[in-house]
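Technical note accompanying the year-one report. For the benefit of new consortium partners, we illustrate the data format agreed upon in the data management plan: each record pairs a sequence with a structure-token string. No post-processing was applied to the example shown here.
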Amino acid sequence: MTAPAQPPTTPDLLYSQDEEDLRSAVRALLADRADAPTVIAATESDTPYDQRLWSSLATGIGAAGLLVPEKLGGQGASHREAAVVLEELGRSVAPAPYLTSSVVATETLLALGAEDGPAAALLGELASGARTAVIAVPFATAPAGAGPVLAGLDGTVRGVADAAAADVLLVPTAEGLYAVETSGPGVAVEALVPLDLTRPLAAVTLTGATGTLLADADASAAVRRGLLAGAGLLASEQLGLAEWCLTETVRYTRERHQFNRPVGSFQSLKHRMAQLWLEVVSARAAARNAADALATGSPDAPLAVAVAQAYCSGVAVHAAEECVQLHGGIGMTWEHPAHLYLKRAKADSIAYGTAGHHRQAVAESAELPAP
């Protein structure tokens, strides 16, 4: 007798009390260490990240180890909690290697399933915040496009996010997945000029470098899982960014007066902000669905991630554009942080696959003609 089919699990889009407590801790830290003047000053310096901020976030709050099981030195939480951290990082556009190290690199190592050996040891170091790692693939690589980027430990990979500040590179090659120390011989990391100054990019050149083999040639599935988690939780960063832009724009238009009236009282601006609010609410649902699907290991996780990225990328860009425009002249200045949000939104819109790529993935999963 065939067992009855199990009804699909309803995704939980609400925030738990633990998640709200985590949000409060991260928001308080970022308000103290990564306010707008501090972030703008950081973009003008030669130091990509504030190490004190990263230490407080990664170790003090324990955010770096949220995805790592307790037996490997982490917090044993899930993608839902990591998504909350990324919402707050998006809200402040704080320069921090959280997405690339604590999500993508960490998830890739977890996918290897090692409970001991070099992969497990590196996971423990990432979870403690003592070290950071990045996948040596272009930031624009979509999950479905994951694969060997080099034949061996020789060659150049351009557009690697956060490589300039990383301690370890996870390099997918035809021989397998290697862990390569950025300070080791034969490794050159050249900083590039990115659009988003809060997330540095670099060209990584390996010339006869040496590394530790973490997995054999079948490591592509692990890299795809890491990039899938990155794409899914990037939607939460985009959500936080859009929420800040909407909140700040509403606040400013209430205070800015023309013709003895707040500019926010003009009907045309009300309509624009109302439309943006609707988009942000929908983006929250999509981002939370992706985080929940990843956290529960749902078979629909790739579809949930594709939907979230197909929608949230455009919402973040629209929110940032409206923020700049509705701030008028002040929104065009370097001193106002609006430009940081627009640049981050634009850069994020092509990270881990463009919205068009993800719409194609949605169409293919539903066996529909591509839009």
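Partners are asked to follow this layout when depositing records. The mean pLDDT is 92.
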